[in-house]
Design a protein that fits this description.
Layout (H helix, E strand, L loop, with lengths): L11 H7 L3 H7 L8 E4 L7 H8 L4 E5 L2 H13 L5 E5 L5 H4 L4 E7 L8 H11 E12 L8 E2 L2 E2 L10 H9 L5 E8 L3 E7 L1
Parallel strand pairs: 1-2, 1-4, 2-3, 4-5
Antiparallel strand pairs: 5-9, 6-7, 8-9
Helix pairs in contact: 2-3
């Protein structure tokens, strides 16, 4: 199965320029101690690893289609002595088989714009989250790609694929019974929508 359109693991160096403190970002979005988390499209763990520190000893299920990135995540978890990350080599198009247990929080960062069947994915995400749990969607603002630069280079998905907050909200609410709780600005180029189940 192919990756979602225009998604992939960014270089950690420029990723760190956008979010120098990913743990603080996660806390701002409501990730809290004692809650289980799943990150869909986790890559090598830029968010999954700090999430694991926050929710320890609860699990963080780190799902990705790229086995090499999951190997890198496991190596980093070992180096950082993080024991509650559960790498899952699987496809987000089939969440029920990839995630064997419901979670309190499901996060999808910089990926929804490339999902071919957004409605189907959101429906599966709804079923994967505990009642009262949260869906966190982090997206690039719909600005021209040439204006979203990191280290002097344009970054992020093509301009035409970017989703304004209203489009993300509509994609989620039209496909499920989530409720929009709040929008969070993540300067310089991102926003997050926090939904509750």
């Amino acid at each position: 199965m192919d990756r979602f359109q225009n998604t992939g693991q960014p270089d950690w160096d420029w990723w760190g320029k956008l979010w120098p403190t990913p743990g603080a970002t996660l806390r701002t979005l409501g990730v809290a101690s004692g809650e289980s988390v799943a990150e869909v499209g986790c890559g090598s763990g830029y968010f999954a690893l700090p999430a694991a520190r926050i929710v320890e000893p609860e699990p963080v299920y780190a799902l990705d289609l790229d086995a090499a990135l999951l190997d890198e995540l496991e190596d980093l978890a070992d180096q950082q002595e993080i024991e509650n990350v559960v790498p899952i080599h699987g496809d987000a198009r089939n969440l029920p088989s990839a995630l064997t247990a419901r979670v309190d929080t499901l996060m999808i960062a910089n990926t929804l714009h490339g999902v071919d069947d957004q409605s189907g994915f959101i429906g599966q995400a709804f079923r994967a989250i505990e009642a009262g749990g949260s869906l966190l969607v982090v997206n690039w603002h719909d600005r021209p790609r040439e204006t979203t630069t990191v280290a002097g280079e344009p970054r992020g998905p093509p301009t035409g694929l970017r989703m304004p907050p209203a489009a993300t909200e509509d994609a989620v609410l039209s496909a499920s019974e989530f409720t929009l709780e709040r929008q969070v600005e993540l300067p310089p180029y991102h926003y997050a929508l926090v939904f509750t189940r």
